[in-house]
Amino acid sequence: MPDPATPSGADSFDVIVIGGGPAGYPAAIRAAQNKLSVACIDEWKNHDGSAVFGGTCLNAGCIPSKALLESSELYHRAREEFAVHGIKVSGTEMDIAQMQKRKSGILKGMTGGILALFKGAGVTPLLGHGKLLAGRRVEFTAHDGSKRTLSARNVILASGSVPIELRSAPFKAPYIIDSWGALDLPAVPKRLGVIGAGVIGLELGSVWRRLGAEVVVLEALPDFLAIADQQLAQEARRHFKKQGLDIRLGAKVTGAAVAGGAVDVTYTDGKGEQRLTVDRLVVSIGRRPYTQDLFTADSGVQLDERGFIKVDHSCRTGIEGVWGIGDCVRGPMLAHKGKEEGVTVADLIAGRFGEVNYKVIPSVIYTAPEIAWVGLTEEQVKASGREYKTGVFPFLASGRARGMEQTAGFAKVIAARDNDEILGVHIIGPMAGELIAEAVLAMEYSASSEDLQRTIHAHPTLSEALHEAALAADKRAIDSLNR
Ligand code: FAD
Ligand code: NAD
What we know:
By secondary structure, this protein is an alpha/beta fold. It folds into 3 domains: 12-163 and 288-356, 3-Layer(bba) Sandwich (FAD/NAD(P)-binding domain); 176-285, FAD/NAD(P)-binding domain, CATH 3.50.50; 360-472, 2-Layer Sandwich (Enolase-like, domain 1), CATH 3.30.390. The protein has 13 helices and 21 strands. The chain has helices at residues 24-33, 55-60, 62-80, 96-121, 179-183, 199-210, 230-242, 335-349, 378-384, 399-404, 432-444, 449-453, 464-472; strands at 12-18, 38-42, 123-132, 137-142, 147-157, 161-163, 176-177, 191-195, 214-218, 246-248, 252-259, 262-269, 272-278, 280-283, 287-289, 322-324, 363-365, 370-375, 388-394, 410-416, 422-429. The strands form 5 sheets. It has a 5-stranded mixed barrel. Strands 7-14-8-9-10 form a 5-stranded parallel sheet. A 5-stranded antiparallel sheet has the order 17-18-21-20-19, with helices on both faces. A hairpin with a 4-residue loop joins strand 4 and strand 5 (147-157). The longest helix has 26 residues, at 96-121. The protein is globular and about 65 Å long. It starts with 11 loop residues before the first strand and ends in an 11-residue tail after the last helix. Residues 1-6 have low confidence and may be disordered. Bound molecules: flavin-adenine dinucleotide and nicotinamide-adenine-dinucleotide. Nicotinamide-adenine-dinucleotide is lined by residues 166, 195-201, 203, 218-221, 253, 284-287, 332-334, 364-366.
């Protein structure tokens, strides 16, 4: 057996990454940029049997969902909002097959792009299953079943996550489906049930609602979007209600039975037992780390009580040269969080500086209005006991938002009373996911609300809403009444 500390030969690498999703593939590219020899292993297969890199994000998550959100929003706007601009459209129809074809084309282009990036960077792509053995050896099983044992100085585990199944409503395609099934629906269901009013429930519920489905969302918790700032959550709820998303809170699903081509769902809420019949039921109650057959017991890798690979602040597993990144380790299950961990680990391996600032990871929900935040919610700041001030600016007062006819929502800045440090920024409104980047940068540099106040923002832009919200925190907004 070759000594893994001194890799040599075709099957020895400085770094092997197991998992080529948005955590693993950037780790592989950065490691190669750092002049290390790298292989990236991924076993993903799409429904058509194609083996590709990109993981959940590119194949069944971020990218396909954003493609459908865009198509469905354009359809909705053409039907409901163009008239106010004086644009007359008649006979608007949605061609679902074309919508899905466009989506598939985007995924193909982007997953193929990873292979091109690997080629350019000098990463060895290996399509198949990877399993960490003792001593930083990795058993690689290609899709044709052939096996090789590889060795590496460093192994990065980036195996991602999978949807959680609900015992009272187990998956039964094509009726009871997960988010991937909901992305691939070939037709608009007349009645769509969604279990879980989280990020997936709201995004995919919005897609099919805009395309004409009657959508009922059953959420177990009594509060809507409990993870978000509650002022923002209440504003969001109001708009979703207007759009016809029927969100039922405090709903505990007790059963789901497929009968006669439909799904009969039973649940309990504050009023007792309830029934709901839908044509398709999406279960989106969260995701769990995926580590099946990823490592042998003697590899030394350990899982925590929730099934995540145990790692420290720097993604070290505690076993020399073995690291864990992305959805399979603690922290928010977000592509950009995994990417940052990936490049950080690849830099640490190369002896460079690297650190993930977990305090400023932005969250975005790509609904309309869009929702985005970074840092603490007002509820969290209040609970911390720190004195604070808030500034809110409504998009109704933004000239650009008015021109766009997208005036729903607001930008909100929360800053500390003692030193004016920005503690959290919450935006609901047009392009919130783009606008939040400025707040992330500000917080990354520990900016004060005064720093935002003194930064010149182009007029008329949506970004002025953030500027004015920062001014409003000191009751100095120019374009609103500072309430
Ligand atoms: P994954 O993307 O899950 O990739 C892991 C890869 O490892 C997979 O390809 C898997 O096949 C492979 N693998 C696992 N085990 C092995 C093994 N033993 N051998 C070989 N290969 C293996 N996040 C955002 O930030 N923004 C969004 O807009 C967003 N939208 C989403 C929408 C949906 C519908 C879903 C489901 C998720 C969304 N997410 C979004 C979450 C995002 O997709 C995940 O956080 C992200 O994909 C995690 O990246 P990862 O690399 O850790 O894991
Ligand atoms: P989530 O954690 O966002 O939401 C799950 C929701 O289901 C929660 O509101 C929870 O209270 C509810 N729930 C849990 N058990 C339930 C039950 N038995 N009955 C009814 N409701 C129940 O999870 P998700 O929406 O499945 O998304 C999974 C992950 O994917 C998330 O961590 C998210 O970060 C990521 N994601 C991100 C984006 C984005 O960044 N835009 C988009 C989609 C998914």
